[in-house]
Design brief:
Low-confidence stretches: 81-90, 99-103
Order of helices and strands: EEEEEEEEH
Number of helices: 1
Strand content: 15-25%
Number of strands: 8
Strand order of the largest sheet: 1-2
Largest sheet: 2 strands, antiparallel
Distance between the termini: 51 Å
Helix content: under 10%
Shape: rod-shaped
Length: about 100
């Protein structure tokens, strides 16, 4: 961004933020970069990974979605269910092991 005037250089937006070319005159004009898959948007911290057993397609969503009952996922997962024999969909939530179900 640049306050204009006779300045010959721009100031970088804060980490995790960006601006359209020529549209920002202060750090307040910088906006958060959309999150990657497996992340949710936090107004204070920007993009943060979804916790285990949750997932997100990224973008500007402010929450992650819980895996279906009896399923889990790793931190930062991008999609919802294990491979289902009926639907043939593959993604990142997997069935809990017998040990995890007992906890």
């Amino acid at each position: 961004y640049s306050a204009g005037g006779t300045t010959e250089s721009c100031t970088a937006c804060p980490d995790g933020k960006t601006s359209e070319v020529g549209s920002a005159s202060s750090a307040a004009d910088c906006t958060w970069v959309p999150c990657d898959v497996g992340q949710k948007f936090d107004n204070t911290n920007g993009c943060v990974d979804c916790p285990a057993a949750e997932y997100s397609a990224g973008g500007t969503t402010e929450s992650c979605t819980a895996c279906p009952d009896g399923k889990t996922s790793e931190v930062g997962s991008a999609s919802s269910a294990e491979t289902y024999s009926a639907g043939g969909t593959t993604d990142s939530c997997t069935a809990l092991s017998r040990w995890e179900n007992i906890r």
